[in-house]
Amino acid sequence: MSEISVRLPDGNTLAVPQGSTILDVANAIGPGLGKAALAGRIEGQLVDLRLPLNDDVAIEIVTARDKDGGDVIRHSAEHVMADAVKRLFPKCQIDAGRADHSEKFQYDFLVDEPFTPDDLERIEKEMQRIIKQGTPFAREAVSRDDARKRFADMGEELKLSRIDDIPEDSEITVFQHGEFQDLCRGPHVQNTSQIGAIKLLEASGTYFRGDESSHKLQRIYGTAFASKKELKSHLARIEEAKKRDHRRVGVALDLYLMDAVSPGSPFYLPKGMAVYNGLVDFIRELYPRHGYEEVMTPQLCRAELFKTSGHYEMFKEDMYFFEGEDEHEEIGLKATNCPGHCQVFDNRLRSYRELPLRMAEFSRLHRNERSGTLNGLARVRSFAQDDAHIFCEPEQVDAEVQAFFDLMAEIYGALGLGGVHMAVSTRPEKYLGSDEDWDHAEKMLVECVERAGFECAIKEGEAVFYGPKVEADFEDVLGRRWTLGTIQIDMAMPGRFGLEYVGRDGEKHQPAMLHRAVLGSIERFMAIYIEHTGGDFPFWLSPVQVAILPISAAQHERAREIEATLMAAGIRAEVDERSETLGFKIRETEINKIPLSLVIGEKEVESGTVTPRLRKSRKQQFEAMALDALVGQLVENTKARNMGPLSQEG
């Protein structure tokens, strides 16, 4: 048998027989590594230990210490959960698991009755028994006919439908441990004993393929880690996440409400509008300095616009369309600003002297999100973006991407957001434009990210259909990552709209087009930011910046005068005139996350002063000061977007 050369991360090479698996390589390196191995990595791609190696290749061995080790453990626990459910509910059908195993796993089941908490307890105990058995996982490549026969014999009708989704030229693999088997690409651990500690989290209802007219399924969520210590730490983070859940905090702070009368569309209350407008106004104020101009494009457009842009072909199911004045006219509700901005650019012939032309818009957008995906402000049908499109000469793209990083740093800094990681998303399975153009654009974006001083991760196949993009992933206080800012090169729309400008040579040229947003959806950003801060906003963004707390009714008049002075200066303030104790009122300011309170008693009325009290400071109580002096500091710190209300906080 011929040998192949396997290159290891330390630069050494190992000669192994052709057809050896990654597990064989791990055992050849050492028995300790062989025992600890969970999966492998080839050219950054996570692969199963049982994958045969037929050519010279560079590999990495993934263990529980590796960042991907937890994903493999959770993916394997997912199969163990399905096995346990099948043992306890033999007549159930199993649908599909989860693609993302970074925090949890899930499976959907067709069962007669919804799962109860007692059911979850039984399933978890059965899982623990399976894990203790240390049953090995086996990987098998099968033909399409074999796969269909296997699952038909098992009565798994939903699985037959999933087999039809697999492309004809793709390998079909089945993973089996004990009596349980399922369609899966893997990877999985060597045996069930490597899974470690598990916990089932909850069960909920869903629909097969998200289709409300199809089978009603039951979904079980769970998580797993290599050790009980890691699991305990993760469950503590989950509890903290529940406390910070924007759906809970947003309601408690009177920011917004959701009502079945308009599914997926928030009703903003006055305090919520203060936060919403604060974000929009902040970015709007930055635009002139960064060379942006605002436009507003129509909410309703004929379908021809979206056919030209490509959205009708690639995105129609996520949009709202309805009949116009006659049956031959189809009208679309705007889901994104880019087609309208192309129309604005094409309003007249442009010159290179006008470029870069940067158009920004905050108008409402609407997308037909499925009801099962709606999630407070995080996933809505009606939203706005801090959206902009840049039309420029091709040689100006690099500078525009660098300028985007500068704008992003300024905005995130004012919001106290650190821990940003950069990545480039590459072409998906369905895309517009040529391979050559995509290759060039992807390479250019990676170089821009690295030139800006960031490490650049690659998100394979995660770009949208019209172009590759840079994604700024923010890590919140719970260690969760969220994509916020994006900038992407459009590979299709300038050509589809026939956009042109007169270049420096006097000839007509096609402009480059960039899509960019720093916060992304304002609604989604608010959801993320509420959870990151726990509703403890920076002073400049707080819905109520100052609470005025008169000790008794005798100070109400002076309290209202102070409120009027603050409001006139643009500071959001409110008086608490309730006949409650001062201690009660102070506790209310804590609950409502109001950063500054002013206690008004007889002394303050007589002296005409105020005594500031901060929620978050080493020195909570400050000396009495003149109202004008306080107002000056508050206005200055609000305009400067400082995190706290006072310049000197002890």
Task: Provide the fold topology.
Elements: E1 3-7, E2 13-17, H1 22-29, H2 31-36, E3 39-42, E4 45-47, E5 57-62, H3 69-88, E6 93-94, E7 105-110, H4 117-133, E8 137-142, H5 144-153, H6 157-165, E9 172-177, E10 180-183, E11 197-207, E12 216-225, H7 228-244, H8 246-252, E13 256-257, E14 267-268, H9 270-286, E15 293-294, E16 300-302, H10 303-309, H11 311-315, E17 320-323, E18 330-333, H12 338-345, E19 350-351, E20 357-361, E21 364-366, E22 382-392, H13 397-414, E23 420-425, H14 435-451, E24 456-459, E25 469-475, E26 481-489, H15 493-496, E27 501-502, E28 508-509, E29 512-521, H16 522-533, E30 546-550, H17 556-568, E31 573-575, H18 582-591, E32 596-600, H19 602-607, E33 609-614, E34 625-626, H20 627-639
Parallel strand pairs: 1-5, 15-20, 19-27, 23-24, 30-31, 30-32
Antiparallel strand pairs: 1-2, 3-4, 3-5, 6-7, 7-12, 8-9, 9-10, 11-12, 13-14, 16-18, 17-18, 20-22, 21-22, 22-29, 23-25, 25-26, 26-29, 27-28, 32-33, 33-34
